[in-house]
Amino acid sequence: MDIEVVINEVLQRIRPTEEERTFVEGLMEELKSIANETIKELGLDVKHYFVGSLAKDTYLAGDHDVDLFLAFPLETPLEELRKKGLELGKAIAEKLDSYEIAYAEHPYVRAKYRRVSVDLVPCYDVKSWRDVRTAVDRSILHTQWVNEHLDGRNDEVRLLKRFLKGINAYGSEVYVRGFSGYLAEILVVKYGSFLEVLEKAGFILRQKIIDPADWLRKEPEIARKTVEREINENKPLIVIDPVDPRRNVSANLSWERYGIFYFKSAEFLEKPSIKFFFPPEKPWKNYLEVLRERKTILLTLVFEVPNMVDDLLLPQLERSAKGLEKALEREGFKVLGWNVGKTEKAFIMLELDRAERERIMLKPGPEFFTERGRRFYEKNEKVWIVGKRLYSEKRVKENAVDVVIELLEKGQVSLGRGIREAVKGANVLLNYVPKELEKETYLFLSREKWNLKD
After folding, report:
1. How many other β-carbons are positioned within 10 Å of the β-carbon of residue 21?
2. What is the CB neighbour count within 10 angstroms for residue 236?
3. Does the domain made of 15-129 have the CATH classification 3.30.460.10?
């Protein structure tokens, strides 16, 4: 299929319609009015800013999440900002449909209005990077920078975002470690279009450092420190934030996700297809068939999900899986791969080379000159004396499930701090998973979950 035909077809699906735009604009006007009204009622000196993809007009059709930032004056003490920011967020949210308190660097309000998610986030009213006090403050500057530099290439960003979603490389969350929306916007500003970003996938990796605002010349000392820090941490890409020389926009981007982008970009340019943007669901079959074919075994720990957000839970699950891998390999089992996640419960899966291990155990006996010593001598195949006591050895078979349970009970596994007790109380399953995990298990064991090739 011709590349322009594919792009036009994708754009028809991802570009918001006029009706959708009217809805979004109306929604933002209503929220603006409610926010202003509430700020006046509470007598606060607070400005509001819309940030994120809606404010930059880089949102995809059907994706209407609103980020409304409540900006306090710079002289506001941080504790006061947190307290009054939460009060203001709740007061606004009470005029909407529903809300809950969420937690990041500081508490914020996550509301629903007209079936759209609305995040009400307190921050400082920053004018430059030197004013930044909290992690969220930059979002105001990010939105301003993109709107000043995108120059009508909004659809190019939409294409890049949808492509990254389609190849499973979108999202800077720690459990994804892919491209953020802001990074996609910067790449389009820097290289001009969706296709040019794809064409330069290899060049970008070799170039390593992208500096859209020329910070290495304007603030060389600070920018060089940023570059040196990220190089020492072996990051695949360093994109110096055009609004803050201290920050790498691609700090969360992993080698694995960039690798997916690297291969899929070349594949799309060679054989354009809509499947890169809207991949068909991967077929799956009974995971037990895969186990029989591979002649391996599956060990699964299933436990109650601790009360923490995914950004915190998933890294702790990964740390725990790595801890179990090291502990089992010390005990003589080979771990061929692991997988973590959550459905109704959290889970850690490990694929092992075998279910049991043979182990030689030392068998101390009685003193050699006693009646019991004679019986011990006659009963055992190999016997020796140390001092006046007899010793032998025996071979025992130990099941992987028992080994894991014992390792956990003895505290001999490095686990994520926040989920340590939950993992210790896990159900340990051998070659079996609950029904809701059957598809996930097949994709893990077959390696289709990570397979780069269709």
Report:
1. 14
2. 18
3. yes
